[in-house]
Amino acid sequence: MLEQNSTIKLVEVGPRDGLQNEKKVLSTEEKLVFINMLIKAGLTKIEATSFVRPDIVPQMGDSSLLYSKLDQSNSLVSYPCLVPNLKGLEMAIKTEVKEIAIFTAISETFNKKNINRTIKESLKDIQEIIKYAKAENMKIRAYISTAFGCPYEGEMKTDDLVNMTLSLDDFGAYDISIGDTIGVAFPHQVSNYLEKVKAHCDLAKLSMHFHDTKERAIDNIKTSYDLGVTSFDTSAGGLGGCPFAKGATGNVATEDVVDFFEKLKINTGVNLNLLREASLYILKKLNKQTTSKYLQNYIKNKNENEN
Ligand code: HMG
Ligand code: MG
Predict the structure, then answer these.
(1) Does the annotation mark 242 as catalytic?
(2) Which of 8, 136, 260, 268 is the most exposed place for a label (fewest CB within 10 A)?
């Protein structure tokens, strides 16, 4: 099932971004079952957890235990973990995490609410985190949140986003994920940014991270793909949201993205039937409806056939 040469790379963020905002705290065992089902479906990069304050994000409170129980037998599978500061890095190092994801934002207000740091402070922290993480041979992803719009400050400036992308590239992140945290981006904003940034940075270094709040994520993915981006963050079943971004609903559903590319005859390396099983499993554990169009359609057809 695992394919190295897929045209499209999907970074599955369900176990972290998908679950972090869920009130019902799942057991470590349930999360591991979910992650293993995602691997079976063909996903090879799975953001497993985050090393953040458990009193603030209780769902991620089992990060060290969860990571220590992940199946590390397949070298094609990697498990990046979110790290907000040096304390988080220290915990990740103790847990022998191989890949971390650091994060900051374009919006000052959001960054302060999210990690209690100004943008300037967080960029300084990030350089230090990267220095220590590199000394431990860790791979480093970076996120830029509120890339196109912020719940507190409104529309963001494209030039600020371009400059921050270049700084993170400079600091040594191998992959920079551009987060539309509250799902408000329009395709013209996405193309404006990508046209500008690609003059200075190889688009192979970027992943696009769309939330589907306004149901524009697939349009934005199409725009990004047409301009040369081939890596996208997605979440099984469309779970997701950020505790510090009012109105941030789910990430774009992995099913919807796989289905979209399959229709274009573009390989994602993911088996939709097995992915569906993983999503249905976790949705049932959370007692939640899906926002995935593909999955909603599947459930509707199944119910009609049964009646
Ligand atoms: P702080 O309170 O500013 O940290 O929290 P502090 O350095 O002042 O320390 C205060 C206490 O917290 C101390 O404990 C520290 O040890 C402890 P005490 O001495 O009082 O007992 N502490 C920690 N404990 C566990 N893990 C840590 C840690 N750091 C300090 N890493 C912090 C700063 C960033 C930790 C906090 O604000 C936090 O945990 N925030 C949560 C951030 C979060 O998870 N946000 C959601 C993820 S981002 C996202 O979803 C967006 C994304 O998907 C992309 C997109 O869509 O845009 C990535
Ligand atoms: Mg997100």
Answers:
(1) yes
(2) 136
